[in-house]
Design brief:
18% strand, six-stranded mixed beta sheet, 14 strands, 34% helix, 400 residues, Rossmann fold, four-stranded parallel beta sheet, 3 domains, globular, alpha/beta, single chain, 14 helices
Length: 400
């Protein structure tokens, strides 16, 4: 991904679902104008989900997902169906590809039931209209032909309208600031930071500060004192990388609001309140408990990595307990969480809001506390109330 690419977490995720040989891959290729997926008359050609981030006019930045046939059979087929179900957790808009000659089958109706259960807006594309026209289209149906490119433009237009309807105006921090105010961003450059660039939450927060017509000062933690002294008046807010909370909180005067990129991302992704409540479980951890530390990205873990090194050490120091730590990254988020006493998740910058909500709901349904890096680190550094001072409505719910 280049620095100017839209991150995956900010793209509309469009999943193509259906039975084997309904023409999902052919339709994906027709919609994108690219040979993204292998097509064949052989049943089950698509064996794994195919992802493609791209600009799709008139929608803009999207991530297209071509899924295996939902009616696949056998042991491998069951695994493919399982993967297809997992894709639903991140799907913003679903396209059910049905065969015009057969209409809706029980398998198609099962998928429709899943879309409705998960509240995913969907459209039914009756494919192969060049050889057989569907007699009666449902309200959310469209007759298309991947082969002849019939109604492909119309399908894209309808998807664009659905994407607009599902979009939400979210801000990371801009709505908490007044135009013209000053913000300091504390961005440690450590071994785990990507070479030659800032991490994504820092980039996104900086952009949102500028979009709010505010001034941003970016500094490393060791230069923070000098940065504060250089300002003629106190900043409206200091935002720090969570792993520097302990040091930064001692430098920034109490009257200056202080929070972290991770906490702001939890709010942006819609799970801040859940994360605040979940952090209370840290106090009740016992010897032998297993804690899952999960990241949405798949970067190579390095010496000093926050998820695999710093968080486990601080958890053990804070609780005084001998804990079992398990790690997950990328798309490998466990569905069975019964063995965990707590889940600590990253900010989720690489995951879209729907997938973060799905992960939160999965933990809630199984009665497992769920928090994130920023909230957990603030609590263990004894500054949770202070780090949430920019969200007054949450202060009464803080246990510290």
């Amino acid at each position: 991904m280049s620095l100017n690419d839209t991150p995956s977490g900010e793209r509309v995720h469009i999943g193509f679902f259906g039975r084997r040989n309904a023409g999902k891959s052919s339709l994906v290729n027709a919609v994108t104008g690219q040979e993204l997926a292998v097509v064949s008359d052989v049943l089950g050609t698509t064996t794994d989900p195919v992802y493609k981030a791209m600009e799709l006019l008139p929608l803009g930045p999207v991530e297209i997902i071509d899924t295996p046939g939902f009616d696949d059979t056998g042991a491998l087929g069951e695994l493919r169906v399982k993967k297809t179900r997992q894709i639903l957790a991140k799907t913003d808009i679903a396209v059910l590809v049905a065969d015009s000659a057969e209409g809706l089958t029980p398998c198609d109706n099962e998928l429709i039931g899943l879309f409705r259960e998960k509240e995913i807006p969907y459209i039914i594309a009756f494919n192969k209209s060049d050889s057989s026209e569907i007699k009666e289209l449902p309200e959310n149906g469209i007759s298309v032909s991947a082969r002849d490119k019939t109604n492909i433009h119309e399908l894209k237009e309808r998807l664009a309208a659905m994407a607009k309807d599902t979009g939400t105006e979210r801000r990371i921090v801009g709505d908490l600031l007044s135009p013209g105010s000053t913000v300091i961003l504390v961005t440690p450059i450590d071994e785990a930071a990507p070479k030659g660039r800032m991490i994504l939450p820092q980039q996104q927060t900086l952009r949102d500060v500028l979009d709010a017509d505010c001034m941003a000062f970016v500094t490393k933690e060791h230069q923070l004192e000098a940065t504060l002294r250089s300002l003629s008046s106190p900043p409206a807010m200091v935002i720090t990388d969570s792993q520097a909370f302990g040091m930064v909180s001692k430098i920034v005067p109490e009257e200056i609001p202080l929070t972290s990129f991770s906490i702001l991302m939890a709010r942006y992704k819609g799970f801040l309140r859940t994360a605040v409540h979940g952090a209370a479980a840290i106090k009740s951890l016992r010897d032998g408990d297993t804690v899952l530390i999960s990241e949405g990205c798949t970067h190579h873990r390095q010496c000093g990595d926050i998820g695999s090194v710093k968080l486990p050490k601080l958890l053990e120091k804070t609780t005084g307990k001998k804990l079992n730590i398990e790690l997950s990254s990328g798309r490998d988020f466990p569905q069975d969480l019964s063995g965990y006493a707590l889940v600590i998740h990253c900010g989720g910058c690489m995951l879209n809001e729907r997938e973060m909500v799905s992960r939160r709901k999965t933990t809630e349904a199984q009665g497992v506390p769920f928090t994130n890096y920023g909230i957990a680190l603030a609590m263990m550094n004894g500054i949770l109330r202070r780090s949430l001072s920019v969200f007054p409505d949450l202060l009464s719910e803080v246990e510290e």
